[in-house]
Design a protein that fits this description.
Length: 419
């Protein structure tokens, strides 16, 4: 993305200078495993699912995959990738796991509608009439046994015990609502001790985050994060929010601003995390006027050292916000426009493996358009291929495609419910 692979600008607030480096393949690309069979989102676009990948896929064949398409949602068997159900919905919906390994929350014009996938032997899949009402339903965060819903239309945050959704059939679980101050596209998270973090913004823009303790008293605030977007929680409940000029890191009651190497614009808008790793992988964009949605660099934030560096990826490794997932070994798995899954070691910034899966593809004209996506459960990656109306299950250990499912329409969003 830049002529110089390494740059060291002035130190950020944490005292460590942000760095930019080039990703170096630890394995020669030409020796990558063969596989059988086969731009950052807009400033106000919703973020990708930032929760940690599920620990393991369902071993009993009762895991489910929800896949959206224009006007409906398919529910698939996670083992065979056969279509089990096809339900009507709105023309464009977003899918988020509810966190209980059974339900998926579908963002519609009414709010967050509950899709019961039937995972874990719970019966047939159906889009229920249950809706967590929310004007302009936005982010869904799962953490510490709670599911946190954010309404962009009001900036209200709705929280419920994740397990309560499955234990209250036919009705919504009890919720706690924290009223917003001024409506904006934002996100909130509740930590295990009740600490509440939420974005701050309004009609004139988004500026940072506010932190309150369990009693509601504000304990920290930072307004040096223009365009704040996306959230991810790493090891030890270190929380990162993306900014248009770096990121905010919250840990142990304090907020630290981490500057991007590109100023005034070096945007991180999506965080890909593992709650067993101190390193957050983020997307990265340094040209606000760049056309398209393909990106060619990633942000690596070490939450223990409070450092941020940007890694330039090889030229053929371009991705969108739907194309990064964390998986085995706390590694990052990037589905690139060359059709391969590139394995990135967050600790070193190196690409360690290349797994060809689908045909090369081009970035979407609009972020909502169907384009390839990846989600991971255990050692299996599920990769969508809209051009062929298909989905593939890839063994990340061997690189083999163990199953391919043919769909009735081009897949768009994808969410797992592994039973």
């Amino acid at each position: 993305m830049h002529e110089s692979p390494i740059r060291t600008p002035a130190a950020g607030a944490a005292g460590a200078p942000p760095r930019r480096i080039a990703a170096v393949a630890a394995l020669v690309v030409g020796t990558a495993l063969a596989v059988a069979g086969c731009a950052a989102p807009a400033a106000d676009a919703p973020a990708s699912d930032t929760a940690s990948s599920p620990a393991s896929a369902a071993a009993d064949g009762e895991g489910r995959i929800a896949v959206s398409y224009a006007g409906g949602i398919l529910v698939l068997d996670a083992d065979t990738l056969e279509t089990l159900a096809d339900v009507d919905s709105e023309q464009f919906t977003r899918l988020n796991p509810a966190g209980d390994d059974r339900h998926v929350l579908v963002t519609t014009s009414r709010g967050f509608q509950v899709l019961d996938t039937g995972a874990g032997g719970a019966g047939e899949a159906r889009l229920t009439d249950l809706v967590f009402e929310a004007p302009k339903a936005g982010h869904v965060v799962r953490h510490g046994g709670k599911t946190i819903l954010y309404s962009d239309g009001t900036s209200d945050t709705t929280v419920f015990e994740t397990a309560a959704l499955a234990s209250s059939p036919g009705s919504l679980p009890p919720v706690q609502v924290t009223p917003g101050v001024e409506a904006h596209h934002g996100v909130s998270i509740v930590l295990e001790d009740g600490t509440f973090l939420t974005t701050v913004g309004g009609a004139s823009g988004r500026t940072g985050i506010s932190v309150a303790d369990a009693s509601g008293a504000q304990i920290a605030r930072n307004d040096q994060c223009p365009g704040v977007h996306g959230e991810g929680t790493a090891l030890g409940e270190a929380v990162v929010f993306g900014c248009e000029n770096g990121a905010l890191l919250y840990r142990s009651g304090e907020i630290v601003k981490l500057d991007a190497p590109d100023q005034p614009y070096g945007r991180m808008g999506n965080a890909y995390v593992s709650e067993t790793s101190p390193i957050v992988v983020g997307d990265y964009k340094n040209d606000p006027d760049a056309e398209g949605y393909l990106l060619n660099a990633v942000t690596l934030i070490d939450t223990k050292a409070a450092t941020l560096k940007v890694v330039d990826l090889p030229k053929d490794v371009a991705y969108t916000f739907r194309d990064v997932a964390r998986g085995p070994g706390d590694l990052a798995y990037i589905l690139a426009s060359d059709g391969a899954v590139h394995v990135l070691d967050p600790a070193t910034g190196q690409i360690t493996k290349r797994l060809p899966v689908i045909a090369p593809w081009q970035g979407p004209a609009q972020w909502q358009d169907a384009h390839p996506a990846i989600v991971v459960s255990g050692s299996t990656a599920y990769v969508t291929e809209p051009a062929t109306k298909s989905i593939h299950a890839v063994d990340l250990t061997t690189g083999a495609v163990r199953a391919t499912g043919t769909l009735k329409a081009a897949p768009n969003e994808i969410a797992l419910a592994m039973g």
